Amino acid sequence: MKRLDSIPTSKIQRASKLLQTGAKVGVNYLKYYGDKITKSEEEAKENLNLSNAEDIYDGLKQMKGSALKVAQMLSMEKSILPRAYVEKFSLSQFSVPPLSAPLVQKTFKNYFGKAPNEIFDTFNLESINAASIGQVHQAEVDGKKLAVKIQYPGIAESISSDLALVKPIAIKMFNIKGKDSDKYFKEVENKLIEETDYLNELKQSKAIAEACKHLPNIRFPKYYEEYSSNRIITMDWMTGKHLSEFTEANTDVEKSNKIGQALWDFYMYQIHVIKKVHADPHPGNFLVNNEDQLIALDFGCMKEVPNDFYIPYFELAKKENINDQAFFKTKLYELEIIKESDTPEEKKFFTALFHEMLSLFTQPFHSEVFDFSDGDFFGKIAELGERYSKSSELRNMNGNRGSKHFIYINRTFFGLYNLMHDIKATNIKINNYTNL
Question: Would you state the pLDDT for residue 382?
Fold first, then answer.
């Protein structure tokens, strides 16, 4: 794989990279219009999606940081994005071009004040994994294997300018209106900045590992403060298959249920007991070891769940509350989904939309046991997403609605549901966390 000797870090460099990518996408659309003359609409559209996905991903992976993080987040939206985008953007979870050895040395000295071979007995300058904001190297001290994650240079400093570049596009895409719309962008910006603070990640990782150590069939690495800084974090080297590798090869239903129950319990315990959750559930953040235990990694993105959001959010997970029209509407106001300033048409539309959505999405919480391998359930989610993505009525409505907390809590549940489906977990006890 090609190594990167530099990353565009200035606002001008990163804007130029986005413009270059946009130009390539424009050319792809010209080809698409030509293809429609000689090919079917379906074939022409598939070629367009493949070309756009490749060009967009190639641009983002060179920029790394928040730009690539967006691709990583989008790769989990399997029910919304075309398959070509999901497959290409999924590479951002654990397979992007790493930094070259000289840049690794330079980065390490900048952040730690020493070369890696001055700190560790051995240090492999070739990265084992490279992702959105950092890459992992293997090191050794006193015979113990360690994983050392180094943050890419300039990433933390470029987050605000990256989001400023994409904000006008997002506002247009989602028709976001109103003076308080900045709360959504600020929520994303704050979380991305938080992810670049490796000392904060170290603190969060140790806290979660301690709080969840009693949960069955899930393991956490030990973290080392003496080998960490605000841009470098060191932990035990954990051996196992990436969760996606496990799910692709596994045909044992018992193993699927064991791993699936461990993952579900882990998330339910965080949400309902700790009220702070690992909000980055993608396959690159989980391994499965030889004992069929789940290993949880990367706690840079943690989302606190405040009570004023937690209570109405989970009240609407109960079937009887969804079907109580007056109660349901009251909770929509509490969660800022509908507002006093909305037109009667907007209130009617979004009440109906969220009633349909929540009636479907909350089905796992309506029974003691749920089958996440159920293709019909996920097919209905995909159909609902596709239907509303094509809704001209929705596109004309003000997209500025919903508590800011929805962004990362919904991301957590979308990601968790997709992982549970990939695992093919069939017999999951929904409230098992209460017995642990």
Answer: 86
